[in-house]
Design brief:
Elements: H1 9-34, E1 36-38, E2 44-46, H2 50-56, H3 59-89, H4 96-105, H5 112-123, H6 129-137, H7 148-176, H8 180-188, H9 193-204, H10 206-221, H11 225-231, H12 242-252, H13 256-282
Antiparallel strand pairs: 1-2
Helix pairs in contact: 1-13, 2-13, 3-7, 3-10, 5-11, 7-10, 7-11, 10-13, 12-13
């Protein structure tokens, strides 16, 4: 009779302890702040669920949440199809393969704060290369510091430039893993390019697309550094996403209780939507 050896769990134990220290303990601290009020000097007063009730009846919260969903939805609608198209256009073999892969990976290597600073300088209406070109060469009125539409377009284009590469690399990995026998059979049957994509390439990319959508949703839904460095949430509050508003409440106003309650609701929304995405995409399996 074969016996099971459970000694391998000892190798997992350090990871579990590290996760507990880096995740569970901070979360419990946030939970503690979310049910209390403090006025400094390490004095706390029990608030209960008051912060959550006020937050769920706050127009400011729903406005920021709506902007967050608009941003994330725009990112997914643009980056996922664009990443698939670029991956399909990339060569599968030959001299250009490593060059294309390295070129695709370059934007992701740039730190987030540097990306925001780069695009801030790049798009300034008077001294920025793009801003000057649009305003003085093409004659298009563009000023992301004053026009909300221009600010929204800028942060979306910035994120597309920064993170479409992730979708491209994941889709490319899924494409190169498809055996040549599938393409040969499709060629014999006289299948069109659309039929090959619909019935061969897209199903085989399902798992990597699920990963790409989940990663891009979670990252874009929790984005902070790039839009904050680029626009600071302005002009006005037009680009104040939920993450930016959360930091303003926590650090700008030093309202730790409401900020903690908001962060827990933020965390729950992220988990819930991620679970819905995963369930819908993997239901056939």
């Amino acid at each position: 009779m074969k016996t099971e050896n459970q000694k391998a769990w000892w190798f997992v134990l350090p990871v579990l302890l590290l996760v507990a220290f880096n995740a569970l303990i901070p979360i419990m601290t946030v939970v503690n702040y979310s049910v209390q009020e403090t006025f400094g000097n390490n004095l706390f007063f029990w608030e209960g669920l008051g912060w959550f009730e006020k937050l769920l009846h706050s127009d400011r919260f729903y406005s920021a949440l709506g902007r967050q969903f608009i941003f994330t939805g725009s990112i997914l609608v643009i980056e996922i199809p664009l990443g698939i198209i670029i991956a399909l256009a990339m060569p599968r073999q030959g001299f250009w393969v490593p060059i294309c892969l390295v070129t695709m990976a370059l934007p992701m290597l740039i730190p987030w704060n540097v990306v925001g600073a780069m695009w801030n300088i790049f798009t300034l209406p008077d001294i920025g290369l793009l801003g000057y070109f649009l305003n003085h060469v093409l004659g298009v009125t563009y000023d992301m510091t004053q026009n909300p539409t221009a600010a929204w377009a800028t942060i979306i284009i910035m994120d597309v430039w920064h993170w479409t590469s992730l979708v491209v690399l994941l889709c490319y990995a899924g494409l190169v893993s498809i055996p040549d026998a599938y393409y040969q059979a499709a060629k014999i049957d006289g299948a069109s390019n659309w039929a090959v994509f619909r019935f061969i390439q897209l199903p085989k990319m399902k798992n990597v697309l699920t990963i790409a959508i989940l990663l891009r949703f979670m990252d874009s839904f929790n984005i902070y550094t790039e839009p904050f460095v680029l626009t600071g949430g302005g002009p006005g509050n037009s680009t104040t996403l939920l993450s930016i508003d959360l930091v303003k409440i926590a650090l700008g106003q030093f309202d730790l209780g409401p900020a903690a309650a908001m962060s827990l609701i933020y965390f729950a929304i992220t988990l819930l939507v991620s679970w819905v995405f995963y369930t819908l995409m993997m239901r056939d399996d």
